[in-house]
Amino acid sequence: MKNKNITQIALALSIAAVTPIAFAQEAGTADKKMEEKAMPEIKQGSLTNVIADSVTFKTLSAALKAAELDVTLGGNDNFTIFAPTDEAFQKLPEGTLQKLLLPENKEKLRSLLLYHVIAGNVMVADLKDDQKVKTMNGELLEIDIDGDEVKANDSKVYSVDTMATNGVMHSVGEVIVPESLDDFAGLED
Asked: Where is the signal peptide (predicted)?
């Protein structure tokens, strides 16, 4: 009988010793899950994904990540982006893009990229000639329509109305420069 009691006591002690470890491991897992949930998730089929999945917008995709706008354009809010192609970025003066990608110029890069973005879903058919639309950087973008040709601040819009789960993308042949950045590293309009 004594052996049975000793065995039960030993079993209870061993369970008691292991229980805090199990709870600690469970708590650690819960903390990790909380951290994962705190990170914004980029939606499948979002503007961020549409841009990243295209071979024509690799530079834009990298710039969006550097400016931390990939999460914004990958979220739930609806946006319209006039997306500069890789070729459009190549038209910038030599060294300008590299300078914009430096950490100390992050806000200038954000401003440049947000000048290509307007709130909501705006199809080309919704745009009007001589219309000025407010961009996400706060400055106005001028739309010119002549027949089938659409321009955003003199930059020709090539591919229109590419739909994403959270917005619309129109590709443009030039990086559109806001007035606030005209004097930055040769970024003249």
From this structure: 1-24
Q: Considering only CA atoms, which of 117, 125, 135, 143 is closest in space to residue 60?
A: 117
70 in the same domain as 6: no
Tens-digit pLDDT profile for residues 135-145: 999 999 999 99
d(CA 139, CA 181): 11
Are residues 109 and 31 both part of a single domain? no
Domain extent for 155: 47-181
* Closest C-alpha among 67, 103, 97, 121 to residue 177: 97
Residues 2 and 61 occupy one common structural domain? no
Q: What is the pLDDT of residue 151?
A: 95
How many alpha carbons fall within 13 Å on the CB side of residue 61?
14
Q: How does 121-152 read in b/e, with b if 16+ C-beta sit within 10 Å?
A: ebeeeebeeeeebebbbebebebbeeeeebbb
Q: Which residues in the chain show pLDDT less than 50? A: 6-7, 9-39, 189
Q: How far apart are the first and last CA of the chain?
A: 94
